[in-house]
Amino acid sequence: xxxxxxxxxxxxxxxxxxxxxxxxxxxLLEWDARTHMPKKGIRGRSQAIATLSGEAFRMSVxxxxxxxxxxxxxxxxxxxxxxxxxxxxxxxxxxxxxxxPPDRYEAFVALTSEAESVWEVARGENDFATFAPYLxxxxxxxxxxxxxxxxxxxxxxxxxxxYEVGMTVSVLDDIFSGLRTETVMLLNxxxxxxxxxxxxxxxxxxxxxxKAFSEFILREMGYDFEAGRLDETAHPFATGIADGxxxxxxxxxxxFFNAAIFGSIHEGGHALYEQGISYELIDTPLHSGTSMxxxxxxxRFWENMIARSYEFWQCYYGDLQKYFPESLGDVSxxxxxxxxxxxxxxxxxxxxxxVTYNLHIMLRYEIEKGLIGGDLAVKDLPEIWRENxxxxxxxxxxxxxxxxxxxxxxxGGMFGYFxxxxxxxxxxxxxxxxLERDLPDLKDRxxxxxxxxxxxxxxxxxxxxxxxxxxxxxxxxxxxxxxxxKPLVSYLNQKFSTLYHL
Length: 502
Ligand code: ZN
Prior knowledge:
The chain has a three-stranded mixed sheet, with helices on both faces. It has 502 residues and is mainly alpha-helical. The chain has helices at residues 5-35, 42-60, 63-73, 81-98, 102-124, 128-149, 157-163, 169-191, 207-221, 258-275, 292-306, 310-323, 325-328, 333-340, 357-373, 381-393, 419-438, 442-447, 451-461, 471-479, 486-499; strands at residues 230-232, 238-242, 245-250. The protein is globular. Helix 8 (169-191) runs parallel beside helix 21 and helix 17 (419-438) crosses helix 21 (486-499). The N and C termini lie far apart (73 Å). It binds zinc ion (ZN). Zinc ion is lined by residues 266, 270, 296, 299.
């Protein structure tokens, strides 16, 4: 049979465009469900999302897809870069999905959806025993799936690969062990210093003004409100609905400053990534972040390295005081800067500071690796958790609700996801080092509010590529290096040695 490639590629692209449209509709339905949907709409909405997800899934594993992939793969050498990557990605999804028997996949979806509601009640009632049998089943099924997929080295590698292509246990073990030692050393020094007063952050901050200030800072960063919007949800998130429509949410607490402002900046960092992807990738699955870790590097970079820097507030603290004269009028820049950067071992991951955050991730990573490798049992997790907290943080959670039950991820079967958060911090520091190499007067630019110039650098070096380059490729291209925690360690040591006079 003679294949006409000039027709085949546009047909393949239009097939993918249709799948992209389904995902776009799903993203909008999900965004609406979390922002504006009336409560009683949940049943119908879940059905609509399930129908569209099912359609997109069937397209990804169809005979039509198989035929596209067969024909295009035989021409791999002569394909343009974008089409070649589309074929590679589609093939990976196709193979992965086809390896799971459909009835087992459906059983897993049903199990995790039930487990999420069981987990929510168990966390509320500090009742690990009720959740444990569900978690055991989820772990068993995940290990079953790992066998279907196959793996090299450690079975956990194939789970990591879903969120961070190419990441392995041996790389993470190495990176994390160095980072853990350095973090604990820094923490020990900080703990000998006087406590920082954070009471100023718990004064009254009018939610309307928090919103206005969040919007102001997002505009300063270069977030395009003509191509996005800011809404309020219980848990902040960013979502790319389609080209020209990347939305973010935040949460306003009247008596806590940090959540809304730093939440908005964090999600804004995710959104700038998606808003900055090249037009060349529109209507394809490559029009997205390349991995969870690289995505998180963009949000952490803006939230911590820029918006928790002294220079940033040298520029914007005066503005902030005008928004909140009653709460911040009597607070100096130095007091404010120390409060927003306080380091304090805490029980809850999502409330953790820059220094202790990665320790929370390493704890979860060790547990996941042990569960998937078959070295740990679910019933032992509460004790393992307490032991690790005692050893690394010097504190112990009185309840499992504030311990092993605190995160939603395991009830949804999302093993392999947690490391992305720490990878984001590590990549962010590596990117920041490259940025300072290219713009040696970076601090001066931040101090003068020249944030769009930073955004432009990120756009040219990272954002425009979307998922065209893999995480290790983009890291290599920008920094010339492979993954390395040293830039993060030196950033943390430098920043907190100055702050705490170590
Ligand atoms: Zn994030």
